[in-house]
Amino acid sequence: MSASLSDHPIVHLARRFAARLQECAEVQRFRQAEQQINQSETVRHLIETIKRKQKEWVHAKHYQKTEYVRQLEQELDQLQRELDNLPIVREYQQSQVDVNDLLQTIQQVVADTISAKIHVETGGDVSGGCGSGGPCGCK
């Protein structure tokens, strides 16, 4: 970002908004769930076991040990189910979804508000080209 843009009043407002966003309940819940995940011995052990089994699976696949590959796949499925069914993991995943939904809603509100005042493409089909007939081929 150029020096002139980084000093723009809108950029300052965006930084203040981002700081306020850190204080909202969804973000706080996400941070708390993330901290619990990072401190959980159970989660750490399951993740380490999954990684180890994945490496074994790659080697077994490489050496075409079909039966062992099947066994490892079943073990990996079971370990993943165990991990996914832990309450703190479910809370963490849900909090990620909630924060993502909030951020997408904010982004959509900003895009819709700007588009209502100034024609700005927000995705999807472009309604027209630059009009110059240049590299984009429009007329």
Automatic annotation (TrEMBL):
Keywords: Coiled coil
Coiled-coil regions listed: 62-89
Pfam families, A to Z: Com_YlbF
InterPro entries: Bact_com_dev_regulator, Biofilm_formation_YmcA, Com_YlbF, YheA/YmcA-like_dom_sf
Keyword Cell wall biogenesis/degradation: no
Lineage top rank: taxon: Bacteria
Name of the featured protein: Cell fate regulator YmcA, YheA/YmcA/DUF963 family (Controls sporulation, competence, biofilm development)
Species, as recorded: Thermoflavimicrobium dichotomicum
Organismal lineage: Bacteria, Bacillati, Bacillota, Bacilli, Bacillales
